[in-house]
Amino acid sequence: MNLRQYMEAFGPLADPDLFETASLLMTTGLSGKARTKHLRSSLYKGKTPWKNNRALLKDIDRLPRGVEWVSDEIVIGEDSNERVYTVFKRDIVKVVGELIGAPRFKNHMRYAPERHWTSRNRRQRVYDEMWSGEWWWRTQDPYGTIVPLIIASDKTCLTRMSGGGQQAYPVYLTIGNISKSIRRKPTKHATTVIGYLPVDSFNDIPNIRTRQLYRGELLHRAMEKIVEPLKSTTNGVPMWCADSQLRRIYPILAAYVADSPEQFDVSCVVRSGCPICKQTYKGRGDGGCNAPFRDQTETLEAMREYRRTRKKRELDPLKLKPWWPFWADLPYVEFPSCLTPDLLHQIHKGLIKRHAMTWIEEFMGPKDFDARYTAMPTAKGMRHFKKGITTVSKWTGRESKEMAKQFLPVIIDPLIPNDVVKLIRALLDFTYLAHSARLTETELAAMVEALGTFHQLKNTMVEWEIVSPGAWDDMPIMHMVTHYSYSIRQLGTPDGYNTESPEYLHIPFVKEGWRASNKKNPIPQIVKYVGRMQAIRIHQTYLDELYPERTKPRERENIYNDDEDYEDDGNVNEKDDSCYESDDAEVELGPANTAVGAHIDSEDSGIAYPRPLLSIALQPTVPRVSGTTLVDTYGASDLMPALTRFLRPKCLAVGEDHYLLPTDRFDVWHKLTLHHDVLPFAPDEPAQRDVIRVKPPVRDHAGRLRDAGVFDVALVLDKPQAFGLKRYRAGRVRALFTLPRRLQHLHPGPLAYVELFAGFRPDQSATHAMYTTTRLGSLADGRRCAVVPIERISMACHLAPRFPNMEPIHTRGRKRTVPVFNPRNDLLCHSHQFFFNEFYNYFTYLFVMYWRYFYYENPTLP
């Protein structure tokens, strides 16, 4: 189709300017009445061909929509309980054709399985994308191209109040040929909705078994309608692919993403069983994984016998539910192996929040437990629980993850048995490893070992009467997590099958359509809304191809592994950043307006260390600050001696003698950003961005504290020849500044005043395995502070106080013998011993684990 034909076919919307107007009116959340009001206003009147919303929608509905929506009916129940439901769906095979043929995915697509290794000697297998797993290798046909289907379903409430009655049950589809880094970005549209399942609780049916039967039948018969086109693909389907090649495609259900309860429902397995293997109820909490995997042929044969005889004894040996599965007749499907790890519900909301948090609360008591979270020093990207954690009313995956970051240092206490600390450490190691985007066989073995340690020590909870004997069998997730390593080897790492993804997709595919509806029988209206949004996206793609010179740069994807910011950074009034780069701690900064990519220091030994690209605002946050203000307000108490030590060798080098004067003024910044490149030993992980905040307290005119301020802690390069964490010392950054102009020829770039902590020491007790450090109380303990070039700041870090060893705190003139855990108390000043919290973020954890593995293989390192 040429341009003229295109314009004639779609009328006014072929005009890019008019389409931009229509797109804005349709995608900014305006109601139909509001759109009409806009079109009749002086801003639009006479400039658009639409008099009202109806005319606009008429043109929108003329646009191509891709795979059309259709409805189908299913009948559930019998006799007086017979009911008819409507399933809204799109042809799944045609949707696969859209995804596999989309040119935008050309550079992110694979058509055959691959095996990855850590080195050329092929000793260490690597698992990441779906095409690196064994399932694809096992299923691959040499004369066809497999398209692994990844289906996700998740029921969601439409009304804000729980139990409000209206729910939606969308079903999403993506394909394993597309890289997971693209699949999990909603803006890439690599995952799309293919249907909406009907929802009914059947609460009006008094018989519980009948009610459960109808619920299961409704789910499976509706899903059967959605996947029905796959039954005709046994011999493959010719499709044009993103690389303009014609291939015979075999779309096969490879992964089903669902939360734990839904995994049992779609597998037709009762809660006392396991949807993946034949593990019995008794002993499933022991941690073993010795039961054989479920055999699909055996499962279907048992169900056929039940349908013939209607005797429950046919189902009991395999712990099956009495409804026919939707996946029974799908070609080449092994459904038990399709179920993927559910990190959100099984780990974060399950083992960590529901179980581990409850156990520790029993040991410590809620008051002390909350107080430690309340008093925990803050760090950028880590939530500060100002009111504790036991009072959190709504727990999401985000709260569970933030709680886990601080969990281990909080629980280290004489009241907590060492075995419990080891158990929590093992659980966190398992969690963080399972989070990885790329896992080697060594790391999978470490996961299995951590899980084994957890199961080995969990009976400590029984000995302390925290958990009742036999309770482990009532926790199905205790067994489900034992299948993680198998699933990773089959389908790749769990981040490609995150159950959080459907929750994000609910916004464009459910919530927005719900808000645009009249709230009565909403699903057909949601379907119409989704179709219109799809048409707008498709039309925008056509216009971009027809008018490439008009194509606007899309909003840049966030490539950083940023944690959500919970704390207020304050109004620091930063302007455009200028980037500084250095090759080591002694090299001068480059030009202020030069931006050079970040890199990782590998040195001669091949060991990776953080070497970030630093950026700081072009203009200071506060110009011309006196030294007295830096000392009194910023807390840089030894600024003048430290600055003198820094300048002395530079003065000697140039043969000059300079003194700091009371009239000297310093330009001061409140933020330093560190841009880390992708790690060479974890190339699939996103790049990291650290922010060092240096913000002084703010008081009102009466001297009352309005903002306590924040001074972050960072790793400062101390011994370049040492290995791992021993290279660095923790330093609390109290000031970011430049020298007065008369001294800038000695050092023109920004400097940092840091309060240094002692060198890191490994855990001597072999319980928590965290490095420790201490606050330097006197010069005899070592140099307490220093002025350093900002290039020596290598990465942000978090120091957690050792709560049992805290010093007494003076309060209102009296010395308390019991530590005061209060967010207003700066524990970085009041505590003496600290833990280097490697769970602060995943970037820190990766580096610490990498250095540990390297040291185990090379124990002679300094």
Structural description of this entry:
With 862 residues, the chain is α+β, with helices and mostly antiparallel strands. Helices cover 32% and strands 17% of the residues. The strands form eight sheets. Strands 1-2-9-8-5-11-10 form a seven-stranded mixed β-sheet, with helices on both faces. The chain is globular, with a radius of gyration of 31 Å. Mean pLDDT is 87; it is low at 555-562, 564-604 and 809-819. This is Zn-finger protein, putative. Residues 560-571 have a biased composition (Acidic residues). Residues 554-573 are annotated as: Disordered. InterPro entries: Plavaka.
Break the fold down into its secondary structure elements and pairings.
Elements: H1 3-10, H2 16-27, H3 32-39, H4 53-60, E1 69-76, E2 83-90, H5 92-100, E3 116-117, E4 125-127, H6 134-139, E5 145-153, E6 156-157, E7 167-168, E8 170-175, H7 180-183, E9 192-196, H8 208-227, E10 237-240, E11 246-257, H9 260-267, H10 296-309, H11 343-364, H12 366-375, H13 397-405, H14 407-411, H15 418-434, E12 439-440, H16 441-457, H17 460-463, H18 476-480, H19 484-491, H20 501-516, H21 522-546, E13 577-580, E14 613-617, E15 622-626, H22 627-632, H23 639-654, E16 665-669, E17 671-676, E18 688-695, E19 698-699, E20 705-707, E21 710-711, E22 713-717, E23 728-738, E24 751-756, E25 772-774, E26 785-789, E27 793-797, E28 799-801, E29 810-811, E30 814-815, H24 827-830, E31 833-836, H25 842-857
Parallel strand pairs: 5-11
Antiparallel strand pairs: 1-2, 2-9, 3-4, 4-12, 5-8, 6-7, 8-9, 10-11, 13-14, 14-17, 15-16, 16-23, 17-18, 18-21, 19-20, 22-23, 22-27, 23-24, 24-26, 25-31, 28-31, 29-30
